[in-house]
């Protein structure tokens, strides 16, 4: 029998925020109270209240819920519990704020000296973090989680029947992920899980499935550990999820003498990057982001972030990008320690190869050369200086293109109604005014209007646009895209044809 431990973190929504506990703290989401401290609860604040009522009843400190921080909080707890077992799953809910972790421990009972020893070690880990938890154990993950709501004493020699006996005493309202089914169960007279178990034993689970749906029935089968079709112990067990901690790489070098010379940093930078390259290749990883930390004995720190458009597993490009940034940097202190950190990695992606080896080599080199050139330009000029254009549907032509990073796929699907109308090779972002002289329109020379007009009009972002566009030819035979603003009766140049 598999054995599952569940730990419900009572203060997780608040602890995840990383702030000191206030005597009366209330966490809100969508202007509703979702978590209250004991002090705030004593003052009259309750879960489910609107924020105005809670403020009226108590002098509370309101904090907005942050789901991203909650996920990071669970990750930290899982990393701490990883010393016990790799079989760790997260418990989260979109319905309530209850968060927790479930561990499958049957494979490590002998290693740690029994279930009770494992529970004590896990509880000590939570106690070190000053987190309040409720504990449950059972033969299935779902049952163990539900039993965190039961005030049960365990001998740690329980059988499956013992766990089901404890389950049967729990109220059906704990099935909070199925609010409609819970409401229907209570109307039918099912108030505890034992009522559902008795119904399954007396008739069949098919009746439950017909009345309450497939998803709810599947959950009951997983919780009780029975087979959907045969109404008996499940014949096939679902593979246990394996938690894998985030992988981080960090290494450093300490100089014999403090330095602020870029030339003296060349060899240490190369050496540290080669260690990173070995780590990435051995673990079949690649990365687009590394970070350097320069520090002295007085704990002064300076950080340099290096980005590559294409994931890399070799050190050469990161070396060039790092040295470019170091060349243009003035250090405010002499560096004693140089640290390299890589926190964001991804599995090495398989890439297709062309069977024509010469062509494959030539194509690969061209792509690599372009990515290296682009990365070096961005390192010297800044991320905003290197970009590409993507089409965006808009009434105003100057708003129909947007700047996007080189690695982002661009939209080149122009609507059919624009494929047969003249459009310039170069579009001027801000239309330039045209002089109206006695001899005609003048912009760096007199203009003769040709093809047109093409009328573009409509409302866009609260502004009415009404223009007549023409293709004009200048005296030097340059073709321009010009328009007359029908509101102001003025002329503008908007583009130049190739």
From TrEMBL:
Q: Which SUPFAM superfamilies match?
A: DNA/RNA polymerases
Q: Which InterPro entries match?
A: DNA/RNA_pol_sf, SulA_CellDiv_inhibitor
Q: Which UniProt keywords apply?
A: DNA damage
The highest taxon in the source lineage is Bacteria
PANTHER family to which the protein is assigned, alphabetical = BLR3025 PROTEIN, BLR3025 PROTEIN-RELATED
Tell me what this protein is called: Nucleotidyltransferase
Natural source organism: Cellvibrio zantedeschiae
